Inverse folding.
């Protein structure tokens, strides 16, 4: 069975991508796994710190235990998404503790998010996590630049952000970051935004984002490692498919499957799970065109 790091390298070289699906509510995991299996798509089951703090995924251990119950290693791996050094409420996080716990629990890859730090501080924090995780054979994702949307306050108008390039990942900084940290893959800011997480805005339709492929090309040439696109929901399909051809090897999806679950769960958990499953099929087959990637990336595993 190929490791997550090997799969990411394979996806990057094949100019395809591995989708990652966030699980803010534990009952979402089973239909996500089932849809990955039914579409023969290799994907990551993910939880971010905010999903056990502000939603109902409960804990790192709870997600790991549910994953062990429903996983299908022909099509799934377990990934720890955003563990920020400074969170969306501008509070300092004991990030090293959370990341160490995830590695000890058996998460197969982890992400440290120092994007709210200065470049030097982000490098130092990421390097500490890389050293810890690599000692256990676990690959690390980090973020450079600012993928907006999770902040507690209002976000500036999207077009203003895009045209100014505010928060976009700088290629020269990215080159230095990758060399000095030894990170395995890098989440970049090239126009995408996260879905809102405040209770008042969770049901709102995401802004329709676009991507700067020129910026992505410059980053790819600078770092020469797999790149990650966060905030995958709501981006026009042509941009997403183009980004995959230009170095994006992992795409995070959260809002697209969370909102159908939340819209149906008061009726019943089963109906909410059915809504997640149906949405997953659309995301994999139509939005991302990633059906059958397990046969390409891990033919013996699936």
């Amino acid at each position: 069975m190929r490791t997550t790091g090997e799969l990411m390298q394979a996806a990057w070289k094949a100019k395809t991508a591995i989708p990652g699906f966030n699980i803010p509510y534990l009952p979402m995991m089973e239909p996500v796994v089932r849809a990955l299996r039914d579409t023969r798509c290799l994907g990551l089951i993910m939880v971010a710190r905010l999903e056990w703090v502000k939603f109902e995924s409960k804990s790192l251990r709870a997600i790991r235990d549910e994953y062990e119950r429903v996983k299908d290693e022909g099509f799934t791996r377990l990934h720890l998404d955003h563990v920020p050094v400074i969170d969306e409420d501008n509070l300092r996080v004991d990030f090293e503790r959370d990341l160490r716990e995830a590695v000890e629990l058996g998460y197969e890859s982890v992400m440290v998010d120092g994007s709210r730090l200065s470049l030097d501080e982000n490098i130092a924090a990421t390097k500490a996590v890389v050293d810890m995780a690599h000692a256990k054979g676990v690959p690390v994702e980090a973020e450079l630049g600012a993928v907006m949307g999770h902040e507690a306050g209002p976000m500036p108008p999207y077009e203003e952000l895009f045209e100014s390039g505010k928060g976009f990942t700088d290629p020269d900084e990215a080159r230095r970051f990758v060399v000095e940290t030894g990170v395995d893959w890098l989440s970049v800011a090239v126009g995408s935004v996260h879905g809102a997480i405040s209770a008042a805005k969770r049901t709102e339709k995401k802004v329709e984002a676009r991507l700067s492929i020129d910026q992505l090309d410059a980053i790819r040439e600078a770092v020469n490692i797999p790149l990650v696109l966060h905030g995958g929901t709501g981006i026009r399909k042509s941009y997403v498919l183009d980004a995959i051809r230009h170095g994006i090897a992992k795409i995070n999806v959260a809002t697209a499957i969370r909102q159908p679950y939340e819209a149906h769960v008061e009726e019943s958990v089963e109906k909410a799970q059915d809504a997640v499953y149906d949405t997953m099929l659309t995301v994999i087959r139509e939005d991302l065109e990633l059906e059958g990637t397990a046969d390409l990336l891990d033919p013996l595993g699936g």
